[in-house]
């Protein structure tokens, strides 16, 4: 980038809020997605909406790519500055502006860490439900832009279900306000939802109004072990069919069970084909009733062993197995790809079997765990990025996994977004008309394609 | 319209599926919104998506306006063919394609009546929650396009919260498929939400995938009478603050109470400033617990009288008052405008007072009732469309009501849409950037502005 432009950027954000040295830029050349990196030309940290607007006006006039970024925890290469230009670091937008408990909403800036927001609303007896694994690191802006989910998605949904309004700076620097505190608001096109999950390709989010919900008074956790995968699949369907919607309904497949047991010695039987981990929440009477119903359904579907946590320590022990899944798998090999291929919940066993077949066919190691209740699985491929021959097989296995998800009526992403990682499958899911429609919207709102170019809709 | 074009349309849909006589066209010149009507040039009833596509290709080439229409029950003049052209009557799209209880979704065509869909899912113990007053007449496509809500909106939301996927024919005739059966689906821009509530201005919906929820096992209804409006307002806020989210939390103001009592003799005290009608639902234990908590909150906030329905007959009696509100008000004068100005719930008393002031200031009769729990009020103006002097005052009162809603942080529409009725206030709510952004999207997707032209975003 010409030094004239660097100087212009310094004038906008102040000299101390721009990084240009090689070692500094290197830290922003990648995110949490293996296999993607590219050096930016400058990292710019604006203080307020006006500064964001002025940076975008400059970037738009000069056609410089701009990549909005929070903590860089995303898993689809959504924040990698693949065409150089400016990483727009939003971490100075770190204020929780308001917790309005009468209207059950909070207003916060995008750089607020999700766990901090939850801490702030907790004293009002409220929660902000989206809880990705990175909740103590990830920013609200990043999770909203990538539509992050988490363990409670089955009952509580993902980020988009909680975003009520946004302030967004558009590519030309103009400032758009969408939505508000109204529970019912159907005026105009749903721009709030359009910019949520747009992965920074349509605008830069500078303020977020989120819906809060009352914290559940009670929780109850259960673990069920299945020697047969199909029975686990039937149990998942039967729980939902029994009209219980657990907060959490997780599955670990055999490869994950073996790895977790080897890593954490939590007492899982390594021959089991599946472990289900379930938590119901709500008011105490409901929790007891639903836990009893779930236990009954698990029994009826031939669970070999069912364990219901009787206290907090037992609850922690149950969830330790789930928490160990990703670190245990990640420890096996140098590189970890955590995917989020998602299918209608009735197709979960088919999907797990297809993943296992792909692992065998391409001779790669894949453990599958994830949010079985909502069909959002995490086939986790462990490998070595430096081994070209292995990586070729890894990418072939990935192709097969995503193609299968789409064939089963699923989607490329349950909660990680598309970014660059899944771009090549987009047309398989959306068809030519779908991609064209998305690109039409992208081009209409960002005619110079400066905002996170090349991501989500590809080149435009 | 030239007879050449009528002949082309006949070739597409068959001679029996096009209306062109004056008396037939007249039936489609208006909808349920007073004060708006215009004759179309043809009413065309396609049988399938392919016919819709061919009609749109023709209309787009010839730049003929097209107005998708269901049962015409909408309250914002969204289906009035104000520029002539083709009314695209979607009532032949009347098939419920699938009820998939394992995945809690249904797939239906847009011409299906909402009550019919509910009947079909009821046998699976499920409900489709949006329940506008017109539920036995309105089509699924119309309610999805206008984002209809209803009495259960506080707990269950409006149509957009249930639309999981769509098939849409775009202006150029291409067929777009969005979303699917996946509970978690964050791939790509949220086109499903963009077309939901777009009032037919971006495409013609030909298939809808909706989310279903388990039917509540039990319900309990309550009525509370307040001599003081502020206390009623405080009670609304206190119920939510007590972490109870009722399915329904309705208010009737004094003008409505007087009118309902005069009309239906249900025993309401005509001096009361407000009546709250509340229903909690869920599993029986929760319902009992929540009903007790609500009663306690009502007492603490100085309700003069509280009545809890002990059986179905008493429940019906309570809801008779609410059901009578609109017909009772409508009976007063020849013309009824039912508006849906919506505010954050903490502002409900301010809003009711502002409506009363507007009624006094402009000497018009307004009864206000509606969904207090979610801030979605229905100020209902009764008047005589033939009285020009009165109508001038009516429109001034409306201006004041909507301006106040926006000033209170509210929105122009909680569940009726914008159409033509509220177009002139759009810039007040969204600002110049908001309107420009919506028009940019409209123009990008419908460059010839053939789809419901002049509605929602105005001229483009």
From TrEMBL, chains A, B:
Cofactor: FAD
Pfam families assigned: FAD-oxidase_C, FAD_binding_4
The protein's Enzyme Commission number: 1.-.-.-
Boundaries of every FAD-binding PCMH-type domain copy: 36-215
Gene3D superfamilies: 3.30.465.10, 3.30.70.2740, Vanillyl-alcohol Oxidase, Chain A, domain 4
UniProt entry keywords in alphabetical sequence: FAD, Flavoprotein, Oxidoreductase
GO molecular function: FAD binding; oxidoreductase activity
Domain of life: Bacteria
PANTHER family from the UniProt entry: GLYCOLATE OXIDASE SUBUNIT GLCD (PTHR42934:SF2)
Family according to the record: Belongs to the FAD-binding oxidoreductase/transferase type 4 family.
Name of protein: Putative FAD-linked oxidoreductase
The organism of origin for this protein: Sporomusa termitida
